[in-house]
Amino acid sequence: MARPLPGTLPMIRALIEQPSISCTDPHLDQSNLGVIHLLANWAEGIGFHVEIDQFSPLKANLIATLGPLSSSEIPGGLILSGHTDTVPCNPELWKRDPFKATEIDHKMYGLGSADMKSFLALMLEAASKFRKEDLQQPLVLIGTADEESSMSGARALVTQNRRLGRQAIIGEPTGLKPIRMHKGVIMASISVHGRSGHSSDPSFGVNAIEGMHHVLGEIIAFREELKNGHRNPAFLIDYPTLNLGAIRGGDNPNRICGHCQTQIDIRPLPGMNLDLLLARLEERLGHVLSYHPELRLEVNRLTEGVPAFETDKNREIIRAVEEMTGQEADAVAFGTEAPFISALGADTVVLGPGYISQAHQPDEYLPLDHIEPCLGILSQLINRFCVQAPSA
Fold first, then answer.
1. Structural domain contains residue 3
2. Same domain, 258 and 359
3. End of a domain among 279, 301, 323?
4. What would the pLDDT profile of 32-90 be if each residue is shown by its tens digit?
5. pTM of structure
6. Residue 119 near residue 352 (C-beta atoms within 8 A)
7. Does the annotation count 147 as an active-site position?
8. Closest among 181, 179, 178 to 373, alpha carbons compared
9. Hey, which bits of the chain come out as E strands?
10. What is the pLDDT of residues 236-284, one digit of tens each?
């Protein structure tokens, strides 16, 4: 028997009040299963076929399908996707409890209100207006794990080759502006190994900090090469960036430093391959320390990285969201799960309520006046790609 949804605001409140922090620090990392089971219960109640893919003891993805299943490798229809996790927070910096949804001045405050638990409620609310019998193509709702850390949920979908739909919306907070491109990101640690010794005689050791001085010069030269060689005017910062984010070396003034490490991130433009980019940098750095045979270079990838993302501006989903929003699809610097959903054969757009400026901030909030416009856009998309679309 069908069960009505609790309502948009009650669903948003329930999702915010179910903690689901994901973090690279295992002491802060939490399960997302509570959020997944809330979503599964609501989706089942309105007629969806629900799968919970629990790919680790504490983490799972939700895949909920309404409408006919296609036998083609990539079905038609529409995917609405969002991540179920949040970043950690500092409750002492908030004016109100981050794990309690608080409505003030037409804003809903709470951790994940903008990024991006509210969209999960909105995609269910929009879907509830349609009957299975009305759909010519499937409507698929996805809730993923760990977008804020390892993106393990999206990676699991790719590993499983889950071909779920031809068009996709990822509801990250874009102020309801469609996004068809974003930069990628890869992080690496670069270490110089020398030999420690007493500082009274330089011959007692080989100074890793001095070696790092040469390495940093080459990294900065590589950064300028990237900046001068790659441009995309769609981005506010229209070139790939390379950030020197951390440096550590030595332990005492009277000891020759035996080890020095720097950590960097590179944010490439669409069309730039993460693996090739890091390989190019490592190759350049490989010659820098040849002036001393005892200095050794080590380059390690800190994360798998997120590829840059681009959907061609002439794709049907781009034309549709531009028509519905009255805004041209744009580009952003922050990363999303879009490249992974795209890898499954879906033409993908990032579009959702709230603002990225609120994400990862104390007193994060969702403007409540984004709710009705977002529901309108989602309803139009479901009608266009699931109801009106011919069966495959």
1. no
2. no
3. 301
4. 999 999 999 999 999 999 999 999 999 999 999 999 875 556 678 999 999 999 999 99
5. 0.91
6. yes
7. yes
8. 178
9. 49-56, 59-66, 78-83, 102-104, 107-109, 139-144, 167-170, 179-182, 186-193, 197-198, 241-249, 255-256, 259-267, 296-301, 309-310, 330-332, 347-350, 365-367
10. 999 999 999 999 999 999 999 999 999 999 999 999 999 999 999 999 9
Asked about 347 being catalytic, the answer comes back as: no
Catalytic residue among 85, 115, 125, 347: 85
- Evaluate whether 136 touches 387 at the Cβ level (below 8 Å): yes
How many independent structural domains does the chain possess? 2
CA trace torsion 314, 320, 322, 324 (10° rounding): 170
How far apart are alpha carbons 163 and 118 in whole angstroms?
A: 25
What pLDDT, on the 0 to 100 scale, is given for residue 74? 61
List the catalytic residue out of 115, 147, 337, 364. 147
**Same structural domain, 174 and 32:** yes
In the prediction, which pLDDT does 137 show?
95
Show the domain range for 69.
8-182+309-387
